[in-house]
Every structure is written in structure tokens, then in C-alpha cells.
Design goal:
2 copies of one chain form a homodimer.
Chain A: E1 17-23, E2 29-35, H1 37-46, E3 50-53, E4 58-61, E5 70-77, E6 84-90
Parallel strand pairs in A: 1-6
Antiparallel strand pairs in A: 1-2, 3-4, 5-6
């Protein structure tokens, strides 16, 4: 882990900070997620991709259900403290659609989803 | 540009969508910014990094003041339509601190900022 001063994180009025997630090997941007203070602390303590699920309103350990876990290699905070970058080793696809990245174009009609 | 269906974008209650910005040559994540519908439309129409400045509350054409412009090579929307990825050719440093990326560690004491 880096010597980042995590006390510098500025959480939004909803208690969340956006987290950009990048594959450390391929450099691909895999997803954008959110963390609250607890999720960020858990991520840093366990070296795993841990987030706050806005849809389920709960701590979300990426891959806990799917097995598509993330090993957190490096976590970085941006210049003004309001965005985080997780650099991860991704096991399997990062996206719930089965795509490697959530930014992959959606399959066209006729392809298996 | 891709054949992304930009009508699928889900702007937040503040009218903004987060935009991850990645250097298309180095793969580095340069910054996280925000766009409203107008900024996104301008970015796509002009192939430039255009955002909504939350601090100044105005459209922000990256580099208009600093000269550190971004040519928008590709813009992608994520699986659930609530995050955008700009892949750009960055001229000069992306960060207002002079760092190449806003996620670069801050200079330590004694270094020139």
C-alpha cells in the first residue's frame, strides 16, 4: 500500500466517495463503484475490492457471491481527496454481465448476453 | 466514436454523471470529473474533454485556460449507464498541480510543488 493520507478523503454528502477500479495487469478501467468510510477501511485492511452497494445499501465485497474477486494491489487518492483509484488483480470478469469491464460495449442483438 | 446509445445515460439527482478519464497511450487513469448533459454533448460533438465544473458551476473545456487540452478518442458508457469513460490524448499534465495524473502521490515536503 502507498503512504496515502487516508484522513484526506472527502466523502460526499451521502457519505460516499467514487472509486475507479483499474486492472493492474491490462490497465483497463473495469468499473466505477463507491465506498463509504467502512468499505474503504475494509479494502485497505484486507487488500480486497470492498465497496458500498448503493442498490443494496450494504457493504459489498466484490466476488463474495460470484467468486470474481479483486486483490487490491494499490489504492490511490486524487489531488483534492474526492476520488479513489483501486488498482486490482481481477479474477474472472469484473462486470455482472459477464464482460471483462463494465465499460465494454453491450452485446448486439443476436449475441448471447 | 463508438455506437454507444447516449440516451441510456443516467444522470444523478444533481444532473451529473461521473467521468473517468484515461490516457489512451499510457493507460493511466488521469482524473475523475463530472459531466452534465450539455458537457457530454459538447464532448461528443467536438471530440474534446468537456466537463461540468462543480466548483465553478460552469461548463469546463479542459485546457481552455492551461492549454493542457484533451482530445477525446473514445467515450464509453458503463453497463448500467451511470458512469462514463473518456479515453483521451492528453496534452501536458492532466492535474492542476502539474502532475501527469490527479492520482499521482503528492510531492513530499521539500520538493517543489
Amino acid at each position: 500500500m502507498t503512504a496515502t493520507d487516508w484522513g484526506r478523503v472527502k466523502f460526499g454528502s451521502d457519505g460516499l466517495v467514487p472509486v475507479v477500479v483499474q486492472d493492474v495487469f491490462t490497465g483497463r478501467v473495469l468499473m466505477l463503484a463507491y465506498a463509504n468510510a467502512e468499505a474503504l477501511a475494509l479494502a485497505l485492511a484486507t487488500n480486497r475490492g470492498v465497496y458500498w452497494s448503493r442498490s443494496r445499501q450494504e457493504i459489498w465485497v466484490k466476488g463474495a457471491t460470484s467468486g470474481h474477486t479483486q486483490r487490491l494491489v494499490e489504492a490511490l487518492l486524487d489531488c483534492d481527496g474526492d476520488a479513489v483509484l483501486y488498482r486490482v488483480e481481477q479474477t474472472g470478469p469484473a462486470c455482472h454481465t459477464g464482460a471483462q469491464s463494465c465499460f465494454d460495449p453491450a452485446p448486439t442483438d443476436g449475441e448471447d448476453a
